[in-house]
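Hello K.,

You asked for the raw outputs rather than the summary table, so here they are, unedited. I folded two proteins back to back in the same session to keep the settings identical. This is the first:
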Amino acid sequence: MNITPIGIRARLATLALVFLAVFPVATRSASAQVQIAVIGDSSVYGKGVSPSQNYPSQLEGALRARGLNVQVSNGGVNGDTSAGLAARLDSAVPPGTRVAVIWVGVNDVVRQGKSRAEVYANVAEIVSRLRARGVDSYFIRPPVYNVEDHNNPALTLPGDQHFNAAGYARMVARTIGPIQALVAKAAKKKSA
């Protein structure tokens, strides 16, 4: 009578069941998707370019190229202001969002004559509300956002001061580092 092989088989079967039960959980947590909402005005919306060329789409592609599992939503509205964004914040940042990228303020200053201090106060309120929802945020502002880039024909649409695909690619290159850090932080929280 040989008991040892049965005991070993039973232990191996138990280990296999434990492995199968644990492995899918480990796989899910390692690849947990992080939702990002990019919110703001026409610079976010991508006025004049195809949806695949706007800032949110290029940001998603760049983050995925770095191996990050992200989904980026476009919460841009042409002509929006920081006060307008604050008013529509709940709809602009869908439930489940872990990171928000805020790019707004030009219309406040150029069209409404508001000061940068007023824009920053509105954005501070937006950031506070997002933080209360557990959403980390990144605000694109000078010097990262260089208003003079809108006068560069290589970065703008013909006869317009809105960015073209190259202009948005430049903005992705300038902002991806801090956004990637926020995504990594959110992914770590999500898998914990």
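The second followed immediately with the same parameters:
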Amino acid sequence: MINRYNKGDSFYCDNRLMNKLWLLFSLKQVPHVSWSSEKPLNLKPKIHTLSMLILGLVLFGLGESILITSSIGVSPWTVFAQGISNHTNWSVGFSTFVISVCILLLWLPLKQKPGIGTILNALIVALVIDLSLPYLPQPKTYLIQALQVSVGVVIVGFGSGFYLIANLGAGPRDGLMVGLQKASNYPISAVRTALEISAVAIGWLMGGVVGLGTVIFALGVGPSVSLGCYLVSKASKP
């Protein structure tokens, strides 16, 4: 009897785990919690909401910085920018700017609205990357480099959870993700993964450089953002 109970209990736990995983990967919208702003264009947000936004953007920038110092591949959108740079006289930085502007234009038919988070995204993420790069490890072993990328992807996901749930305006790419999710009703993880794969594929075809870190980021950031949104929303419930 004891053995049968243990097996049944184990089966029940396995089912609960599978249900949670399914709920995680099928998350179809950014959760709204008590400290979320009622609208993205909010010039007087609550201190708690603004704090969560800043925390999320700091974590996002740190995750990006960890990816850079792993030295085994840049983010998919940087590969896209490299590809454009190869076919123009533009620098990678200016190509990145042009991509961001084009993505913001795509917000219009998707009815996405910017906010102070859209501006702070560019400022805080760039600042965190610049400040953190000198202090992060730069491993030489390929396995450790791959692990470092994975850690960076998870941190980006958690950062995204905080700042997207704050609902004070997303960055260009995250806003595109949210807009496409609402239009298609596909899960957040699927939409984000499709965007990242599309960016890296186009960039690679145009001559951008793809590394293992790029592939890990492209395939992992969608589920990571979904996980971040899920866990942050669960932790925010009373």
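The CA atoms of residues 41 and 217 lie 30 Å apart.

Happy to rerun anything if the numbers look odd on your end.

Regards,
P.
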